[in-house]
Design goal:
By secondary structure, this protein is an all-alpha fold. The protein starts with a helix and ends in a 7-residue tail after the last helix. It has four helices and no strands. The chain has a single domain, classed as Methane Monooxygenase Hydroxylase, Chain G, domain 1, CATH 1.20.58.
């Protein structure tokens, strides 16, 4: 309820004086040279997904490193298998050309 009230108050009380400069598309300080709704190459998404996967793997290393004393050899073997799977996946993506931009 509070969210609805705040959004309504903001839309009613906010100033509305759009100028041509405010309505113009902005891209890094210079005029846009293409349509902002242009299609991205699929490889961009593949690289982004690969980045997310390898970035999230770091989130698994921190708790593993903290609890390694309690986990013992089982924890070391489990993390070795996990890292091996990630490395195999990385090389498969590399071989299929997911990291090449031409």
């Amino acid at each position: 309820m509070l969210g609805i009230v705040l959004i309504t108050l903001g839309s009613v009380l906010s100033p509305r004086n759009p100028t041509s400069e405010k309505a113009a598309p902005f891209e890094c300080g210079f005029e846009a040279f293409e349509d902002a709704r242009g299609k991205f190459d699929v490889r961009f998404y593949l690289v982004a997904i690969l980045f997310i996967i390898f970035d999230l793997e770091i989130a698994f290393f921190i708790p593993w490193a903290v609890a390694l004393d309690k986990l013992g050899v089982f924890g070391l073997v489990a993390m070795t298998i996990f890292v091996a799977e990630l490395i195999v996946g990385f090389f498969i993506a590399w071989k299929r050309g997911a990291l090449e931009w031409e």
